[in-house]
Amino acid sequence: MTKSKAFLFLLTASMLYAAPTHAETAPQGHATAKPVTIYIDGRELQTEVEPLNLNGTVLVPMRGIFEEEGAKLTWNNMNKTVTAIKGSTTLTYRIGEHTASLNGKAVSVDVPGQITNGYTLIPLRFVSEALGSAVKWDQDTRTVRITSTVSYDTSILWGVNLRSLPDAEKGSSLEMLSAGAKVHVTREVNASWLEVQTQDNRTGYISAKPKYTDYTSPSLAGLQGDALIAYGKKYLGKPYVFGASPDQTNTFDCSSFVKRVFQDTLTIELPRVSYDQAKVGKEVSLNELRKGDLLFFSARGLDIGHVAIYAGNNQILHTYSKELGVHVEAFDGQWKKRFVTARRVF
Q1: 201 CB contacts (<8 Å, ≥6 apart)?
Q2: Domain limits at 130?
Q3: pLDDT at residue 149 above 90?
Q4: CATH number of the domain within which 295 lies
């Protein structure tokens, strides 16, 4: 689907409030109707397509609302299925059907979604409530107000700046959030930044690195795993030198490479040597592996003498050879035979 084919919500007046009276019903037609205004948590939503009222049905762009609520969207054009993930909630819906999947359970959809003129339309009330939001229609002002459920369940672990932009150099510091403070994460911007709301209703951006908060999610872990591997690949071909200092990047041994990549990417301080690194984090099984997990192997007569980073798709990123330096190779053969344990540290 192209960018121009924005996702839309299908919003009927009867779905906006309970038991509407005739006077509350949205006017029919669209020739002289006042434009619909949308607010989410008090902020006006600037939409890609102007909201419309067509014969009592309000059409509202979907992508902007989901992004404001912090949901991550994927679209399968083959089977016309949209999936929205927000925290621990996963909503999957196939356009045109009367049921959807909410965290694996079937739920009814009173008004099925449809595709019209290249746009995907989906019922607002159902989707908003599934993601924990409430929807209210103000007929006098022709305003849709969406209120998301705000829970301040993310703790600040280390003093961190609340910034005006997700950029340490360009964004200014709004305030310092102290350890123990609580925030609500509204959006995962990327591997490095979270958009948050404070308990005094200020909004801004803080570091997503594990050092600063206890916030976790599968989607953020995926972003950070990708960032970790991308950064490590910057050093492909760098020479292997046993005992290389982790304070420089001209040469590496296996554990100095891992230590440097985790420090520079996620500000995670790992021990210097592999058998100590194997004591950090939690153990995971091979069928649970995700990008960024550490794999440990026997080597040089030691129970644990080598470490590598799992790069996804049964590949590992590591260094042990003067000929190859830092490189990626398949996690099979000798590596499966010498494998000891896997650890997850973020």
Answers
A1: none
A2: 7-148
A3: no
A4: 3.90.1720.10
Full-model pTM: 0.65
Strands 119-123 and 7-12: parallel
37-40/143-148 β-pairing: parallel
Give the residue numbers marked as catalytic. Answer: 254, 306, 318
Residues 21 and 34 in one domain: yes
Q: 3-state DSSP call for residue 125?
A: helix
Among 21-25, 44-48, 116-120, 285-289, the minimum mean pLDDT is found in 21-25
First to last CA, the chain: 33
Does one domain contain both 17 and 91? yes
Domain C-terminal end among 199, 215, 231: 215
Alpha helix segments (H runs only) across 144-299: 218-232, 254-266, 274-277
Please check whether residue 2 lies inside any domain of the structure: no
Tokens 């924005």, residue located: 6
In which element (H, E) is residue 123 found? strand 119-123
Helix (H) or strand (E) holding 337: helix 334-338
Residues 144 and 174 in one domain: no
- Residue 19 banded pLDDT, cuts 50, 70, 90: very low
For 39-96, write each residue's pLDDT tens digit: 887 778 787 766 656 555 565 666 767 777 778 889 999 999 999 888 778 999 998 8
Which residue from 277, 273, 159, 255 is spatially nearest to 209, judged by alpha carbons? 159
Task: Check pLDDT > 50 for residue 24.
Answer: no
Q: What's the average model confidence in pLDDT over 294-303?
A: 96
Same domain? For 285 and 201 the reply is no
123: closest CA among 157, 152, 100, 150? 100
Task: Record the tokens describing residue 27, joined without a space.
Answer: 């006017």
Q: What is the mean pLDDT of the chain?
A: 86
Q: Does 90 share its domain with 204? A: no
Residues 209 and 335 in one domain: no
